[in-house]
Design goal:
Length: about 70
């Protein structure tokens, strides 16, 4: 496996600073995931309604996917 390429901006930073940057990045990713999930859920709910389905029907239709490997199950 090749060695990871270093980012010159990070070279020489103390470990504590790198850990702080990592924590900030992880928090930003978590926030972005929440926002993206809201967008997806909103779009799904709208598409269900446009096709005459309730959100409950959509949730019930997704339940089998929760048990499948690769679909978060």
């Amino acid at each position: 496996m090749p060695a990871p390429q270093s980012d010159k901006k990070l070279d020489g930073l103390p470990l504590a600073e790198l850990q702080r940057l990592l924590a900030e990045t992880d928090a930003a990713i978590a926030e972005r995931r929440v926002e993206e999930l809201k967008v997806l859920a909103d779009g799904f709910a709208r598409k269900l309604a446009m096709n005459g389905f309730s959100v409950r029907e959509g949730i019930d239709a997704l339940k089998p996917y929760a048990k499948l490997k690769g679909y978060g199950g």
